[in-house]
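Appendix B, record 7
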Amino acid sequence: MNVFRKIFIPVILFAVLAVRIYAADSEAAELYTQGRKLYLAGEYYDAAKKFERSYAIATEAAVRANSLLAQIGAFRMCKLYYREFNAIELLLERYPEYADCQTLISREYEIAEYFRTGLREPSFWILRWIPWLKDVDRTEELYLKALKRSPYAKEAPAAHMKLAIFYDLEGKTQPSLVQLRLILQRHPKSPESKYARLALANGLFELARRGDGDSRYVNEAVLEFNEFCKRYPDSSEIEFARTKLAQARDIQAERLLEIAEYYRKNGRSEASERYLAKVMGNFPDSKSAPEAEKILSDISENYLPGDFPGRSEARRPDLRSYAIPETKELILVSPLDKDSHYLLPVPDLKGELLQPKKIKEVKK
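Structure tokens (predicted):
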């Protein structure tokens, strides 16, 4: 009896399990065939449902992978791109040997871009004709999944930049800066790295303006602005970078001056003198330098005032004006007076602007 339990019962269970697996695969193959017929007939959503059921009950890897590939095509034809994205993720995660990985990864970034540019899927397929029944924005979710799947793909630098802009428009400054830093860390030679560095420096500068207790933001902003000016001296954004750099250095000097004032009010003149000397020595062209010199002259008996250099960079961008270039073409002049009775513009054939009075004389 014990021998029967040890040998025959496992054999019987294995046989029953094999029969059930074979039946499940047969049913999955039948559902897949039905889905193919619906797909060829143009019933893409119903076909996708058949492929989903085929994937759910199939046990063989080839059948499941083919079901996922069919789902990808059917959902794409339905324009249900979020479900297509999920099917791609499932295929790449579980059956990468059956997938064209490079093509599918590019497709993931493409779908994420659809949602970034305003695509919203219907909440319910049966009520897709109602325009206001739309699903939520999937931009952040899809970009993060795609970047996690392939952080060094050729589309990754642009995806990081677009996601940073998305976060910035949503008012999420810190996540935006994280994406910009990832561009500089992972893709330092990409075209996006130039603008990522400038955007990172400017974002840190804006955070420093709102409040920067330990000066961490402004110090990093100065480093990034300096690096940008060093790497791209001939870029069209160099004037903006230099202006922001000068403003950031003003913030650094202002922080030191505030510390010096704190020590002076608390009777610690020596500590105050050290910070005032830093302002005058490291930031002689800052807005705080004259004030620091005045305070130092009051509290120190040994200090002799000196001359400070002029500001090296402007604190505001230089707005230049350009004259409109002259043209040799005929100028069309519209009458300025209703008494001229001209309904159409008058061409200036002689190269001079015709005033309404001259128009009357020409008419006579």
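Remarks on this record: The beta strands are 332-333, 346-347. Residues 2-40 form the longest helix (39 residues).
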